[in-house]
Amino acid sequence: MGKRRAAKQRPAPAKREREKYDCVVCQGRDCIEFPQFAKYKTTRVGLLVCRVCGLQWHASLCHLEDKCDLYAAWIDALEEAKGA
User: Fold this and answer.
1) What is the pTM of this model?
2) Residues near 81 by beta carbon (within 8 Å), at least 6 away in sequence
3) Distance (Å, rounded) from C-alpha 15 to C-alpha 69?
4) In this structure, is residue 69 part of a structural domain?
């Protein structure tokens, strides 16, 4: 008689990326959206919109960047403008 086969280890589920972020300007929670991000990713221009204060911010994108990178670039641009 042969040995029993060990059960296969299932891979851990991938962590989902956040879809909405907090607005630094108006202090709104989960109000930053990225409308039609896939369409803008092909044109290499990212759009960030706040639902509360109506803020819109555009930035150029690399093919490797994602929503969190666009949000981080926006935060960096705000800090740079505040420091200047």
Assistant:
1) 0.73
2) none
3) 17
4) yes
